[in-house]
Amino acid sequence: MTSLQEFYDSGLFTYAVLPLLIFMARIMDVTIGTLRIVMVAKGQKFWAPIMGFFEVLIWIITMSKVVQNLDNWLCYVGYAGGFATGNWVGLILEEKLAMGIVKIQIITRKEASQLIEALKNAGYGITHHDAHGGSSVVSIIHSIVKRTDLGKVEEIIRTYNPKAFYTIEEVKFVSQGVFPIQAAKRWRKGK
């Protein structure tokens, strides 16, 4: 028991272990906070409050350790470094999770019938129309897709019209639509 107390009182714990623990705790709470904000933006009413609870719990514990060690500047560095790293980790995780739905708008000067058919054959719902661009007639194709399918849609665009201009926007809610169950399998078979 005394050896554990001696370790807590040692310089090794105060100037190395404690700042490292603060750093890791901040990574966790800021990562959770970043994901919670995404959940709020996507209307996830169940997960956002749960994540908020753990985010604040970790923050309070971490902040209490910083306040208890106001004379230790390494705790400040651990706190700030954990905050910055937590933002980075949270954004990377959110990107990997690819939650939600996006709207993709494709504008092409090249004749778009092959691209339209490829998207349809892959199981994606599309709406298209001709329009007048700045210097020529263009085709505009709209589709709502799961973020997890975005790479497959971009691959189809690159295959059939690599010079197409396209934009991607977040969508909060969709009431109905055509979402492929196994779009990737159909796309690979048809290729």
Question: Would you write up a description of this structure?
Answer:
This protein has 191 residues and is of the alpha+beta class. The protein has a 4-stranded antiparallel β-sheet, with no helix packed on it. Strand 2 and strand 3 form a beta hairpin. Helix 2 packs antiparallel against helix 3, helix 2 runs parallel beside helix 4 and helix 5 runs antiparallel to helix 6.
Short précis:
Helices cover 60% and strands 16% of the residues.
Count of separate DSSP helical elements: 7
What string, H for helix and E for strand, traces the elements in order?
Answer: HHHHEHEEHEH
Strands of the widest sheet, in order across it, are 2-3-1-4
The helix fraction, in percent, is: 55-70%
Structural class: alpha+beta
Our estimate of the beta-strand percent is 15-25%
The parts where pLDDT drops under 50 for at least 5 residues are 183-188
Number of domains: 2
Largest sheet: 4 strands, antiparallel
Question: What is the approximate shape?
Answer: elongated
How many strands?
4
Question: Span from first to last CA?
Answer: 68 Å
CA-based gyration radius: 25 Å
Kindly report the average pLDDT value: 87
